[in-house]
Structure formats: structure tokens, C-alpha cells
Amino acid sequence: MDFSILTDYFGTFMEGFRGTVVSSLLALVGSFALGTLIAVFRIGSIRALRWFGTGYVEFIRNIPLLLVVYIFYYGPAALELPLDGFTAGTIGLAVYTSSFIAEAIRAGIMSIPRGQTEAARSSGLSYAQTMVHIVLPQAIRLVIPPLGNQFINLIKNSSVLTIVAGLDLMYFADIVNTDTFQTFDTYVFVALFYLALTLPLSYGVRVWERKLERKY
Asked: What is the pLDDT of residue 103?
């Protein structure tokens, strides 16, 4: 291993690391919000929203992530509203991940006894209030492990941004590789940077899960 690559190009690696962190955080928030909304659509009483939610999940889950990113990169450009690689890649990553989060949260909602919803509605709460205050907090607690796995996958999937020059870790690693021609060493160091993100997150999810088990 040539550690001079890490020391000489540490600033370049860190620039890509920051890009990956920012993109992942934005996509995480966006995918969770969108996935929760789609999950509620899928189990709601309005048929049009159920159809939309089902179509959304089935379409997005069954096409490659790269294609989703291309849709947001080349689509707006065709309409003369171009997005930069970072923005298009982050949106594509959020949309793609939201379809998996929607399924996880829907499973959590379905596991909540229907009597709780009926009791809340009979107490005067609206459907939205019932979801926000009664059902979703319990459902999300139940599906923390799969949600954690999806967030870890999101970080790893963020490497797709390099395809559209998204200024992520892999993008800058390609620059380092071009300068040094040390392909194996360069990407081993990149793997370490990704592990610095995913391992603490994986540990944090397990700790949070154990705390919730003790609490409930």
C-alpha cells in the first residue's frame, strides 16, 4: 500500500467525503419524508392515492438507480432546466431510496392493530392526525432495523453520483487515480472513507434499537 497517496491527496479525498456526506444527508431526509408520504398513500382510503402510491413504488423499485439519476440529470436538461450533477444525483438517490422506505413503513403501519386507528377516529381525530400522532410513531419504531439498512445502502449508493460528475467521494477518487495510476491503493482508501460513514451508522442503529426494546 502506498500511503503517500492518502497523505498527498488527503484534501482531495476530504472534498469528496464532504460531498458524499452532504448528498447522503439531503437524500436521507428527502427519502424519509417522501417514503413516509407514499406509505400513507398506499394504505389510505382514497383510491387514486393508493393507485399512485402503488405505481410509484413498483416503478421506482424495479428500475436501476442509475436510470433514476439519469432521468433527473437529462430530463430537466431536455426541458432547458438543467440540473448540476450533485443536485440531480441527490434527487435521484432520494427518490430511489424512498420507494424502499415506503414499503418498510407501510409494513410497520399494517402491523399496528386496526383498533387503534378506529379508537382515534372515534375520539374526534382526523385521518391525518391519527397517522401523525398515533400510527406513524409506533410504525417507525417497529421498522427501525430495515430503515437503518436502507440508510446505510443510501450512503453506499451515493457513489452513483460520480457518473454525472456529482462531486462525491468516488468522483474525486477517479481524479486521484488519474493522477497517480495507483488504482488498487486509491480505491482501498476510498473504501475506508465509506466504512468511516457506514460502520458508526450501523452501530448507532443497533444501539437505538436496543434502547427502544428496553423502553417498550
From this structure: 93
Contact (Cβ atoms closer than 8 angstroms) between residue 127 and residue 41: no
pLDDT at position 209 over 80:
no
Residues 3-214: name the CATH superfamily.
MetI-like (1.10.3720.10)
User: Nearest-CA neighbor of 156 among 129, 203, 214, 195?
Assistant: 195
Q: Are the CB atoms for 197 and 204 separated by under 8 Å?
A: no
- Rounded CA separation 161/182 (Å): 22
DSSP string for residues in 112-140: S-HHHHHHHHHTT--HHHHIIIIIHHHHH
Which tops the pLDDT comparison, 127 or 137? 137
Contact 188, 5 (CB under 8 A): no
- Residue where the block lists cell 382515534: 120
Summarize pLDDT for 168-194 with one digit per residue, the tens.
999 999 999 999 888 999 999 999 999
DSSP calls for 173-185: HHHHHHHH--HHH
Phi and psi, residue 64, nearest 5°: -65, 150
- Judge whether 171 and 164 are in contact, CB under 8 Å: no
The pLDDT, as a whole number, for residue 216 is 58
Q: Does the pLDDT of residue 94 top 90, yes or no?
A: yes
DSSP-assigned states of every residue in 57-105: HHHHHTS-HHHHHHHHHHHHHHTT----HHHHHHHHHHHHHHHHHHHHH
Q: Report the alpha-carbon distance of residue 5 to residue 64 in Å, rounded.
A: 33
